[in-house]
Amino acid sequence: MNCRNCHTELSETDDYCKSCGGKIIRNRLTLKNLFEHVSETFLNYDNKLLRTFIQLFKKPEDVIVGYINGTRKKYVNVISYFALAITLSGLQIFIMKKFQTELSLYDTTTEVGKTQQAFFDSTYSLTTEYQSLIMMLYIPLYAIIAKLSFLGIKKFNFTELIVVFLYGQAQLSICIAALTVTLIPLNILSVQMLGLITMPFTFFYFAYCLKRVYSLNFSQILLRSLLFIGIIGVLFILAIVLTLIFMYYTGNLDNIIEAQKANVEAQRALKDSIN
User: Fold this and answer.
1) For residue 33, what are the contacts with CB-CB under 8 A and spacing of at least 6?
2) What pLDDT score was predicted for residue 62?
3) How far apart (Å, rounded) are the C-alpha atoms in residues 155 and 165?
């Protein structure tokens, strides 16, 4: 008898392959053993997925630093966990598109509001459509900011910091996707409220993970977190400047300025007519 995964020769009494560690399957696939396999994989308390999810809240350093140091069997590996998060993010986007109402952030009774709302709608549609790609691009950016924020602490190199944020971002994305799928269809939570809740939660969770993996006390992580926020603030201002430049070259900025002028003129004319 040979292993069906790596074709290593096995004895009749082997339950697992001595080469690849794969479980020996002797029975044909039926609905019963298929359900048992799914239950064992996803519903068993002691399975890797549930254990990884729980420990990333209780002791994230056990999962993250363990993986960095070579522990690869105890928890779901970082790539698989991030891939699961991306899959659930796709389900989240589907739910948001199906159940959310129109996000009207501006007064569309004015020309300025209509222009601003149109720009927001196009931007929101783009970021939603490419959410998974954007989520992946966040990771190296976070790693660079952490590298700058934790200067003087040479515990992790750049690649290891990417592992830290891959696990952290995956954990956050899974939680946010779960909230979206369960609460938005029931109208318990709106998309706007979800965003307000997840922004501070994201910051505190990353701070918590970094505190644990770097073994810092409260004052140390507070200082590093403020530095982290400061760097993000600078990058945010830079992003605004680049957005304004983009709007200028695409004509959106001129449209907003012209609409603002028209709105001011209309309000002035209305005031003069009343007087």
Assistant:
1) 27
2) 95
3) 15
Average per-residue pLDDT in the chain? 77
Asked if 215 and 206 touch (Cβ cutoff 8 Å), the reply is no
SS3 45: coil
Distance CA 155, CA 153 (A): 6
Phi, psi (5° rounding) for residue 18?
-75, -10
Burial 182-196 (b: 16+ CB within 10 A, else e): eebeeeeeeeeebee
CA dist., res. 118 & res. 206, Å (int): 33
**Alpha helices by DSSP H, the chain:** 31-38, 48-58, 60-68, 78-99, 111-129, 131-149, 158-183, 191-214, 218-250, 252-274
| Cα 1 from Cα 16, distance rounded (Å) | 12
**Displacement of CA 4 from its chain's centroid (Å):** 36
Number of Cβ within a 10 Å radius of residue 67: 22
Residue pLDDT, tens place only, 64-94 = 999 999 887 889 899 989 998 988 887 777 7
Q: Are 150 and 157 in contact (CB under 8 A)?
A: no
Task: Check: CB of residue 237 under 8 Å from CB of residue 200.
Answer: no
Q: Is the pLDDT of residue 59 over 90?
A: yes
Return the minimum-mean-pLDDT range out of 11-20, 127-136, 193-202: 127-136
The string of DSSP letters for 183-238 reads: HTTTTSS-HHHHHHHHHHHHHHHHHHHHHHHHT--HHHHHHHHHHHHHHHHHHHHH
Q: Please give the structure tokens belonging to residue 36.
A: 């048992």
